[in-house]
Every structure is written in structure tokens, then in C-alpha cells.
Design a protein that fits this description.
It catalyses: GTP + H2O = GDP + phosphate + H(+). The protein is of the alpha/beta class. The chain is built from 20 helices and eight strands. Strands 3-2-4-1-5-6-7-8 form an eight-stranded mixed β-sheet, sandwiched between helices. Bound molecules: guanosine-5'-diphosphate (GDP) and magnesium ion.
């Protein structure tokens, strides 16, 4: 994995007093190898390391930082630059603004269409219409309908029509009539790039004149992703790239190669099957992720966004007074669930990604806990100290669990209470964010 390899190559520099021609050469060789192993095109990796070398040798080593840290910063900044420097927003011009989704079958177009609709609806407050343009796979229309109903977005379909260009045009007309201001057109893909698919997608593009054409590509396909991106770009001249399936093992390599081969910005990354598993692509954060610093900034932002500050203050007060009870406990679980997939969250913490690689955190990890708490009476939830053995037995029966399960939860609750009291009593400071200036 790229992160491990880069970590190792930085170790070579550790303890060295200065960045010299010799230790830079060693390190850069390792970095180049690591990049190539992560599916970065050879030429891209070579150009990249050559540039890093020029920057590194030209720098006076600051007294305060170790050469390894300095190299990390140079590599990080250069990586970010290679991936576009700054985040680029999605352009939504026109009435309605049309977003066209293209890519191979199975790349994640339909899933992403749903996520993007939800994102635009909630973050930008626009009226979004989804269009089912994949008429070849019988289940494709239903799939989009299911997603649409999950996120509360209308899906435009024409079950009998076999002409996707016509469907897209009709959908836009419909959107105008019904005052939708963003139309997302999901399209069909094939297993490999072929002429029929390219003709269809270019015809749709010519007909609907999208404000944004996004190319969706599965990050797990490695070097193939780069070739597919090139072929689509040659025909379609798309505006941005969406990298999907970046959950699990991080494959930053594709992001780097695609950007340098097609010279189009990466706009979103998709990291899960759930509708909220979508992130705006930030080159600097991706660079951090590749370098193993973890995407701490995203994590903090996401946590802040979801966590009601008022609620946090109220909790803190209760914790200090040792009044934290099961109602607060369940509220906390709700907060955590709102923040999305636990594994995604944990993998953003530096060092955790590696640890969690082979660990399975089920999505319903809280199910039993919630069942037990709902079997408590209001008084028990409010005053956990009254829960004696007889009550525990009743709670176990009511929640379909065992005494041992209830006891375990009570113990967990006590531990949480103690730990949180200690944290709240001290100074609740934001953790320092590595790699941020
Ligand atoms: P399409 O053929 O391009 O429309 O692809 P779909 O959206 O139907 O996705 C193909 C499969 O990949 C489905 O099983 C999705 O649930 C899954 N999928 C899509 N995006 C992601 C992602 O970001 N992470 C993971 N793990 N699975 C994804
Ligand atoms: Mg699809």
C-alpha cells in the first residue's frame, strides 16, 4: 500500500541533518516506486519526483524541522498541486442546469447520481430532478427510483421509450414546466469502452448541452481507470472526474494519474454505498490521505457539521455534574449514526485506516444497545442508578437479550460516563491537525 511505502521511504530521511543530493535521491527512488506500485503512470511518477527533487534541493533546511518533515511537506504540496491544487466546485449554469453522468457499467454512476442529487438538494438548496437514462438494464430504472425515494428526489422515467436522447430532452422540458432547476441525467454504461456507448453519450451531450459532464470511474480499477478516462475524455471532453469506491483500501494512485493524463479536475470522491458517502474532492486532503496523515480535516468538518453545538454544551454540563444518563447515551448514538458509516469515519483518523483494514464494523452495531435502552422505563433511563438486578432481568427479557448483554451495556455506560466526565472536566480542545498550515 502506497501509504506504508511512503512512510518507509521517509524513514530513510529521518535523523539526517540536511537534505543532500544523496539522501534525496534514495528517498525519491522509493517514492517513485511507491507511486508506480499504486498505479501511477511511470512518466507521471518520474516527472513528479524530478520536480520534488528540484524543490527539495533548492530549499534551505529550516532549523526547526527535520529533513524528513520538510520532504513530507514538499511531497505533500507537490502531490496536491499534481491533483489540481485547489478544490473545484460543480458548475450549475442554465435553467435548468444539466449534469450529465458518464462512465462504464458498474463504475457507480447510478449510485453517484443519487448522492449528487442529495448533495445539491441539501447543500445548495436546489430543486433536483433525476433522469433514468439507462434503458438497457431492466433493473436500472428501479434502482434509481429506489434511491430517489430514499433521498426525496423525483425521478423522471419513460418506461416504454427506447431512445435515451429523447428521454433526456423530454426530462428537461418537464423540469422547466415543474420548476426544477437542476437535472441530473444518469446514463447507461458498457463493460468496456465501445462505439455504441460513445455515440449514445455524445448524442445525449449534444442534445442536452450540460453545464457539467462528469466522468465516473471506479478507483479500484487502477491503471485501467486511467485508460478509460483518456478514452472518454477524447470523445466526450468531460468537465470533471468522480472517483468511486475509495472506501476500504485507499487507492490514491488513480487520482494522481487521471489528473495528469486528462488534465481535468477531480470533483468528487465516493466512498461507500450509502447516499451520504460523498465528498468534495480536496487535492490537499487527498495528498494527506495518500501520505498517511488521514483525512483529519474532513473528519473534523463532518463532525462539526453534524454535531449540534448547543447539544454539546448541554452534554458537557451534565457530564461535569455526573448527570449523564441513558437518554444522553442514546442521543449520542444518534449523533454518531448521523455522521455516517463508522468505518469511513474511523479510517479518516491517522493510523486507524491501517488498523481497521481487516476489522468489520457492522452498520447495525448499535442495534442491541438501542433495543436494551428502549426496554428501560423513562425513570430508568433518567436515573440509571436505580437499575438493580431485578430490573436488569426485566430489561433483558423485554429487549430479547440476556442478562449478560444488559450487564455489559451497564458497564460500558459507566465507563463512558467516567471517561466523558474526565474529558469534559478538563479542557475540551480540538485536536491538532497534522499537515495543516
Ligand atoms: P453504474 O452501473 O455505473 O450505474 O453503477 P452502480 O451505481 O449501479 O454501482 C455498481 C455497484 O457498485 C453497486 O453495487 C453499488 O452499490 C456499488 N458502489 C457504487 N459506488 C460505490 C462506492 O463508492 N463504494 C462502494 N463500496 N460501492 C459502491
Ligand atoms: Mg447505472
Amino acid at each position: 500500500n502506497l501509504t506504508d511505502k511512503l512512510e518507509r521511504s521517509f524513514k530513510i530521511l529521518k535523523g539526517e541533518g540536511r537534505i543532500t543530493e544523496i539522501n534525496v535521491a534514495e528517498t525519491l527512488k522509493e517514492i517513485r516506486r511507491a507511486l508506480i506500485d499504486a498505479d501511477v503512470n511511470y512518466k507521471v511518477a518520474k516527472t513528479f519526483t524530478d520536480e520534488v527533487k528540484q524543490k527539495a534541493l533548492g530549499q534551505d533546511v529550516l532549523k526547526a524541522v527535520k529533513p524528513g518533515q520538510m520532504m513530507t511537506k514538499i511531497v505533500r504540496d507537490s502531490l496536491a498541486e499534481l491533483m489540481g491544487g485547489t478544490a473545484s466546485d460543480i458548475r450549475l449554469d442554465g435553467t435548468p442546469a444539466v449534469v450529465l453522468i458518464a462512465g462504464l457499467q458498474g463504475s457507480g454512476k447510478t449510485t453517484f447520481s443519487g448522492k449528487l442529487a442529495s448533495f445539491i438538494k441539501s447543500r445548495k438548496g436546489r430543486q433536483v430532478l433525476l433522469v433514468a437514462g439507462d434503458i438497457y438494464r431492466p433493473a436500472a430504472i428501479d434502482q434509481l427510483k429506489v434511491l430517489g425515494s430514499q433521498i426525496g428526489v423525483e425521478v423522471y422515467t419513460e418506461e416504454g421509450n427506447r431512445n435515451p436522447v429523447e428521454i433526456a430532452e423530454n426530462a428537461i422540458r418537464y423540469a422547466r414546466q415543474k420548476a426544477f432547476n437542476v437535472v441530473i441525467v444518469d446514463t447507461a454504461g458498457r463493460l468496456a469502452v465501445d462505439e455504441a456507448m460513445m455515440q449514445e453519450i455524445t448524442a445525449i451531450k449534444a442534445a442536452v448541452k450540460p453545464s457539467e459532464t462528469l466522468f465516473v470511474v471506479d478507483a479500484m480499477t487502477g491503471q485501467d481507470a486511467v485508460n478509460t478516462a483518456r478514452e472518454f475524455n477524447d470523445r466526450l471532453d468531460f468537465d470533471g472526474v468522480v472517483l468511486t469506491k475509495l472506501d476500504g483500501d485507499t487507492r490514491g494512485g488513480a487520482a494522481i494519474s487521471i489528473r495528469s493524463v486528462v488534465d481535468k479536475p477531480l470533483k468528487f470522491i465516493s466512498n461507500g454505498e450509502k447516499m451520504d458517502a460523498l465528498q468534495v474532492f480536496h487535492p490537499e486532503r487527498m495528498a494527506d490521505r495518500i501520505l498517511g496523515m488521514g483525512d483529519v480535516v474532513s473528519l473534523v468538518e463532518r463532525a462539526q457539521e453534524q454535531f449540534d453545538e448547543e447539544e454539546a454544551r448541554r452534554l458537557k454540563k451534565k457530564l461535569v455534574k455526573n448527570q449523564f444518563n441513558f437518554n444522553d447515551f442514546i442521543a449520542q448514538i444518534q449523533q454518531i449514526k448521523k455522521m455516517g458509516n463508522l468505518k469511513d469515519l474511523a479510517s479518516m483518523i491517522p493510523g486507524m485506516g491501517k488498523m481497521l483494514k481487516n476489522v468489520d464494523i457492522p452498520d447495525d452495531v448499535f442495534k442491541q444497545t438501542e433495543a436494551i435502552i428502549s426496554s428501560m422505563t423513562p425513570a430508568e433511563r433518567e436515573h440509571p442508578e436505580i437499575i438493580n438486578a431485578r430490573r436488569r432481568e426485566r430489561i433483558a427479557k423485554g429487549s430479547g437479550t440476556t442478562m449478560a448483554d444488559v450487564n455489559r451495556l451497564m458497564k460500558q455506560f459507566e465507563d463512558t460516563r467516567k471517561m466523558m466526565k474526565a474529558v469534559a472536566g478538563g479542557n475540551m480542545k480540538m485536536p491538532r491537525i497534522p499537515g495543516r498550515r
